[in-house]
Write a structure and sequence with these properties.
Helix content: 10-25%
Structural class: alpha/beta
Order of helices and strands: EEEEEEHEEHEHEHEHEEEHEEHEEE
Radius of gyration: 20 Å
Shape: globular
Mean pLDDT: 91
Strand content: 25-35%
């Protein structure tokens, strides 16, 4: 397995391939030539860019001991420096660091029926899932929506399948996917996965509320809520036997960093899961996009990069 320094892997960008309008596939191989950590469908990695930014991207393929990781990256016209930098500045041969893969979007391979719903670049993890299900001989159906054919990645590869339904807005009078119909027509024991732009994900979750028997899985690339920065509580670190005052107007993560607490984090938006921490006492103010409603109610863990506290004292296993 490839050598890892502080959880990060040194890799080289070995190929850039065109996937669709404004979307490229980027391949990374480890500098030491050893196999990378194993992955499964739905996994993502953090890419640490030379401009000090860090961004998360889903892997296009999965498997045991892979020799390379491939991610699909669409240039966002509203980019804050992530996708634009990658498209404009990264060249084949660039050396950088990536994280080990994490997965908050697990594929249930034994599901009787699997429905995949993708919007735009949200196809990346779902394409990986479709390939895995196909190799296992499991039934699946993909609904893939894009503004146009020119913007659809893997269009040729997916065009060979009868179990793929495309929706191109400019060919359909500007109409979006009928998410309510897709959910309503899905078998009751289906697992439904959705990944795409935030408005699509919110519409999908609204559509699934009337069908509680379905197993629903959603992957967010951007935060659903603002980071909790109200502060005004005591943070107790049980293992290190420390107390930290999270001042009013301060986030929990900023308080930890201010006091030199070594905590693993990445996205700072609650979408990647790197900072998940056990809660021993208190009531978290959950602001992440990962935990389910039942997990939030149980409050056994929280994402400290974006969440806060509803109680005057919060005790964490740190």
């Amino acid at each position: 397995m490839s050598s890892v320094s502080q959880g990060l892997i040194d890799v080289r960008l070995t190929a850039i391939r065109y996937a669709a309008r404004d979307t490229n596939l980027y391949e990374f191989r480890p500098l030491d030539g050893q196999p990378l950590p194993s992955t499964d469908p739905g996994a993502h990695i953090d890419i640490h860019l030379p401009n000090k930014m860090m961004r998360q991207y889903s892997l296009v393929s999965s498997g045991l001991d892979p020799r390379s990781y491939v991610v699909g990256i669409k240039r966002d016209p509203a980019s804050r420096g992530g996708s634009a930098y990658i498209h404009e500045q990264l060249k084949v041969g660039t050396v950088l660091k990536i994280s080990q893969p994490r997965n908050n979007f697990h594929l249930v391979e034994s599901a009787p029926h699997t429905i995949l719903v993708a919007g735009g670049i949200g196809i990346t993890p779902l394409y990986c899932m479709s390939q895995r299900l196909g190799s296992l001989g499991r039934p699946w159906h993909l609904y893939y929506s894009c503004r146009s054919r020119a913007e659809a990645a893997f269009l040729e590869e997916l065009g060979y399948y009868d179990c793929v339904t495309f929706n191109f807005d400019e060919e359909n009078g500007g109409k979006y996917l009928d998410l309510t119909r897709i959910v309503a027509e899905a078998p009751k024991d289906a697992h439904i996965y959705c990944c795409g732009p935030l408005p699509m994900l919110r519409a999908f979750e609204e559509a699934t509320k009337s069908f509680p028997s379905h197993q629903v899985h959603v992957e967010y690339f951007t935060a659903q809520s603002e980071v909790a920065s109200e502060g005004g509580f005591i943070l107790e670190l049980a293992r290190s036997k420390r107390e930290i005052v999270v001042a009013k107007g301060q986030s929990l993560l900023d308080a930890l960093r201010e006091h030199g607490v070594d905590i693993t984090y990445s996205c700072e938006e609650g979408v990647c899961g790197a900072c998940e921490t056990a809660v021993l006492s208190g009531t978290p103010d959950h602001r992440d996009s990962i935990l389910t409603e039942s997990e939030r109610q149980a409050s056994k863990t929280m994402m400290v990069c974006c969440s806060g506290s509803k109680s005057d004292r919060l005790v964490l296993d740190l």
